[in-house]
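Can't attach files on this board, so I'm pasting raw text. These are the components:
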Amino acid sequence: MNLFSCNNLTKQYRSGSFTLKDISLELRSGEITGVVGENGNGKTTLLRIIAGDLAHDAGKLNYFGNNEVDVLSWEHIHSRIAYIPQRIPQWYGVLKANLIFQAAIRGVKGKEADYLVDELLDKLGLNEYANLKWKEISTGYRLRFQLAKMLLINPDLLVLDEPIANLDMNAQGKFLSDLRNLVTEKKRNVSVILSSQQLHEIENVADSIVFLKKGEMIYSGAVSKIGEKREDNEFEIHTTLSQAELSALFEDSPITKIGKTFHIKVPLNVSSEDFLREVMKKEGKILYFRDISSSTRRLFND
Amino acid sequence: MKFLKKFDDYLLHHYPSIWITRVHYFLPLGLGIAAFLFFANLAIGWKPSDDLPDATIPIVLMIIPVLIYLVYWFVFQSRYNVAKSGGKMTIGFEYLNYFLYLLVFFVAFLIISAIPLSNYHKVKMNLDPVELEKDIANLNLGNTLVNGQSTVIFTDFGMVEFEPINYVYNYYSYDYPMEYDYSMPYPGTTIKSVSRNEALKIIKDYITSYNKYAKYPISQSAQEILKDREMNTYSYNYGNYDEGSWEIQYKLSEFDERIHNDEWYEVYQDEIFWKMMLGLIAFLAMIVWLFKQMKLRHFVIGFISICLTPLLAAIVGVIIIEVLGIRHNEEEVISFTCLLYYAILTFFAIRGYLSNTLNNTGYVMTMYLQFFLPMLPMFLWLYFGYDRHHYYFDGPEDNIFNTIYWIGWIVGLVSILAFKPVYTKFGSLPAKN
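---
Top answer:
Structure tokens for the assembled complex are below.
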């Protein structure tokens, strides 16, 4: 079921020249959609529009089974969406009390509220932090508590803006696996959309990806289909070989250097195994390698 | 504490919208402070010879602690919000919350009033009205003989003649006509003729009564005072008598008036005062209610606008009266201008409400309109019903005042019901930028 869809969505800010142009996408229940792109390319704008926090200028928005915005009130739409902005507002008091409050205002009262909150804390591995205060827990746990709070709303659409930006690798992994478990839960009928700069992690967890560049949607589709129609393969490599040595190895292949890493585009018939074999033949030591032929990473380089 | 903790937990689990008001902590705390101040001040005690306790200084001194109490409470109000957390409150709970806010402000008022009330109360407790009346009579009768307020004649027949002039100003008894001639003796004054022994007794009674209320008692004997009067060697040098005399005069005049009018608690027994005070508290509670309904940025702008309104009103008043020179029917012109403002505010509020995106002006104007809505009946009356030549304010019994006052209350309370869905809609609309 489509929980959200938009056609030719456009948004221009009154101040500044940035425009989000002709965005069309669908968010389905049981799926995670990642929004990627460089800073200032419209990720937050898009998420805010989806969450009903920001008005769009043109295009059509449909929520919860192709209902147009005019049919549903914004109040109703908001009641079914949980939006976690980049900066999570601070909580006050004991964390568990906040969650019980959240449950109680949604009509789950008394012991039922305790039961529901305990179950959720258990599921997200937050039990030992439940009686602490906001300032006593790390950023990663704050995010997971915020997620727990949002889940108590039982939303249909979960919108997360750069949720893993400030998390260490372990915390990122834990959080993303929580999200994956969440969308696959049978009793939930939720769709998740999240923005991030961590392409590898997002591609690992997401079912589909939206890539934005200067406000335009360069790619939107399944993660598995990224690079399906590509004309070459592209690799990232950090090696002891110099750029000249690599150029000699792969003639006519464009090479760019970003930091210590080379980005090389090779013909489609050159697989990653072939590529690595050639580098090793030249006794080049491989410090880092990634095949980005089927990753949105390559879109950053275009 | 254990009971409070349990009660807190119960409210959190069953009545979260009451739990967030934190009244279960702040009301007992405020009442406790007020009771402590009241009884502690009472325990300090008061004697009739002490100065009349002051009401102004304790009020001024308590303003800062009360502000701290209110700000601390308000900080809690900013921490949790049912609507902003995705929940819904029934209109019944909205009203309940509003009355709880009102109660908190009332308790703050009690804290401010605790010491003045306690002062008034301890004065009442430590004065015996019968004894006081007797003392006042003694002082009034002996005033001329002791203080030489009027001529005292010692006759050849051993009699003392004098005109008693009241020592205690019992203002309530002077029902002067508008054109009263103050050079005339006070109504009921007569020349008194008494024997020397009777005159000595009058002076003794004066001294006894006076010394009960004086910090600096009269140290001279009745004989010495009478001799002074006879030799016309008038002297005020009765110890520190003249330093404190006028204070005693003022103090006893106050007591006399309180006994006579049964007004031991002064302004606190005034109906108009209570009506005004409750009106003010209702407006403050409305501010908190509005704070809960609105997004912070819009609330702050609306609140600043409300605070600046008296300045705006003054500017408009100056323009109307001084610049435009309208002096004959200024009430009509000012009330018309105010009604025009209401119309403009209503227009912006409706336009914002009908918009599909968040209209910042409409949002703020709605708050502003609701806040001043209880005053609309007053402006309507000023414009349509007020007759400056025939209307005189008639105190607490004034029917017009009471009608407008209570209609204002009803309008204010109904506005909660009417504006709640408006704020809900404004709060859910997407922003333009």
